[in-house]
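subagent[fold] <- orchestrator: predict structure for attached chain, return tokens only, no commentary.
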Amino acid sequence: NGYQNIVINVDGYRINNIDMAPSFLGTINTNDIDRIEILKGSGSVVHGDGSNAGSINIYTKNHNKTRISSAYGNYGQKNHSFNTGKKIDNFSISFSSSYESNDGYSQKDSRGNKDKSKSSNQTIKFSYEPDNYSQVNFKYSNTESNSLFPAALTRLQFNKDPSRSGGQYNEFDYNDDIWGLDYITHFSDNFSVKVYHQGQRKKYDARDYATNLRKTSAIVNGLELDYSGKGFNLTSGMSISERELNAYRNSQTLVNQANKQNEAIYLQAKHSLDDDNKLSVTYGARSERVITKFNNTSINTDQSDRLSMFETGLNYIVNNQVNLFSNFSKSMQSQDIDRMLPYNFLSRDYDTLNPKIKPMQSRTINLGLNYIDQKQKLKISTFYADLDNEIVYNPTSFQNENIDRTNKYGYEVFLMRKLNDKFNLKFNYSYTIAKILNDTDSTTFPSGKLLPGVPKNAINTSINYDYKNLSASLNHVWRDRSYSFEDFNNNNYKAPSFESTSIFVKYKLNKYFIDKNLNIFGSINNVFKQKNGVQIYDNVIYPFNFTRTWFIGMEVEI
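subagent[fold] -> orchestrator:
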């Protein structure tokens, strides 16, 4: 359940859900992305509930040019995007739109459907600077998508032909509106205040399930203060978020209403311990109250939990090429509403509360080294995490429960080396062990066994070419086999490894067009047609990325 242990923010708005639905990253317009920050094992003070493994912060662009892109590929792939923007005096506006679709990669099911999909996104941003010290920002984004997902295959079916139909495909509709308004003002060169309001209305409809339609809404209000002095920075804030979910049977009958409210306050400081700014320390703490309420035909109750988080870190600059770093973080994860409402097989409804489940607590330490020179960058890091009450699904009781104690540890090596003026090489290797230490239910969760769904080894490597008007990359990703998601006893029900090779090429035609930037590009994904799939338990595999796909396109920037 890694997606529940990483907080994902887009322009400061948290897109994690209060139920077990993962964040819909695929709906983000990739042409809008300006930069991505990945904080591993840290961020619990600023981001709070659920940031046990860290956080991912995605920031989007303010477009100031007009750009049109269009691409087509096999399996009916289409990918079109448009963005434009303008700044006039103290006012700027930015707009982007994207559409992508495919006709499906698997064979037709018994109803004649294929695993096709389509999605669109429109985003508009306004910014106004009334003076040299203040700024008002507004953003609105809408996303719509429709997808059909393949049914599970047996191992024999998967190995023989992963494109075959294992049953009727599940159709899924998604509609999401997100908006945000913030005001930033600088009272001095050292002190600034940010006040923000954010909201969301979302609907996702799994058409082929009885309890199929879910509507969620969210309101977030917060305040952030930032003060900086000589070798010192202090950040504090408070926020109140309220997220509500309404679940419907057959798209009409309301069967459950759940509300989750988070009230948080935090303080984080960073300062140098010497005059040369070689040794710096960060530390901070957060207090968060989580209130969960349920209201349906048989449940009308609420539950409150107090989450306390803190972290501290050290960074030492040895010289212009080497720095050492460490971080210790205590974080927590509250129970989402799906975990607290087990399915009642007698009434065929979600009409009972799960009294056993408790918030998870994690203590994580990271140690690492960075080395940078003119030709290469090397990063080596290691981590150890000790967890209490890790939240998992028990395949024996069909309920979500806590494992008393688990741990996770490993290391990661990243190398980027410039081979010459045209070529550079990137290599990333990670090693991870996740174990059950002990639990009162030793039969279901035996001590010393590996947690399922966690590959030990993973490699991501690429070679990149960039010279004059031509840029190209060859990338290979491999992740080790792991035990199936429900195999806590490690009975060798191992899922297949993931492996895929991709190629991307882009050529600039600038010399032929004086006043425009015109590019052509192409890509091949899964060049060697590796068979990839997600295995839930023995003989149940959901295929994905199992065939070779390609597309070619053109983009123009005015």
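orchestrator: received. Logging for downstream: The two ends are 44 Å apart (CA to CA). The longest strand covers residues 253-272.
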